[in-house]
Specification:
Strand content: 35-45%
Distance between the termini: 39 Å
Helix content: under 10%
Strand order of the largest sheet: 5-2-7
Structural class: mainly beta
Number of domains: 2
Oligomer: single chain
Order of helices and strands: EEEEEEEHEHEEEE
Shape: elongated
């Protein structure tokens, strides 16, 4: 069984707009994380940063499999309508960078890249090795615990490449 989740090390939760309170939670409300961004003057906003003025970011908790985004405004954009008429909140790949022009142009964006992590099962490699169905079957494979939640993953050993989940799947790398 594979376990897929949103990477905590390669994603971030972001919000932008000058009248924005946003948070991320799982479907069971076991956690909330988020940020606030308010500004009434475009000169306070700095492109390329997540400074908290016009935009903000926070880390994604480890092991998130599902989530819900809540977005609230404080003053109906009354003090920023001309330059920031909307608020946005989303999960995005860490490479996503903020630009003040996004205040007006982002409304047409329907998808953003995110990074998913996966692991086999929900047991550590030590626990899984003792059971039938251990996934790292190639003799030249190595197993390691997932760093982003429960489960384990496999790699071909140094000097080998291929698929460690298949017998004979890791082949020696030949040098010229």
């Amino acid at each position: 069984m594979k376990s897929i989740r949103f990477s905590d090390s390669h994603n971030k939760f972001v919000a932008f707009g000058c009248d924005t309170f946003a948070y991320l939670t799982d479907k069971k409300d076991t956690f909330w994380t988020g940020c606030v961004s308010y500004c009434n003057n475009m000169s306070l906003v700095t492109n390329g940063t997540w400074s908290g003025i016009g935009c903000c970011e926070t880390r994604v908790p480890k092991g998130v499999r599902d989530f819900r985004v809540e977005l609230t405004i404080f003053h109906n954009h009354t003090n920023c309508w001309k330059f920031s008429p909307y608020s946005y909140a989303l999960l995005a790949d860490s490479s996503f960078s903020f630009n003040a022009s996004d205040f007006l142009t982002f409304k047409n964006v329907t998808m953003m890249p995110v990074t998913l992590e996966w692991a086999v099962g929900n047991k550590t490699r030590e626990e899984a090795r003792e059971e039938k169905g251990f996934a790292c079957v190639d003799v030249h494979s190595e197993c390691y615990n997932s760093t982003d939640g429960p489960g384990y993953r496999c790699n071909c050993s140094r000097g080998y490449q291929g698929n460690p989940y298949l017998e004979g799947g890791c082949e020696e790398i030949m040098s010229d």
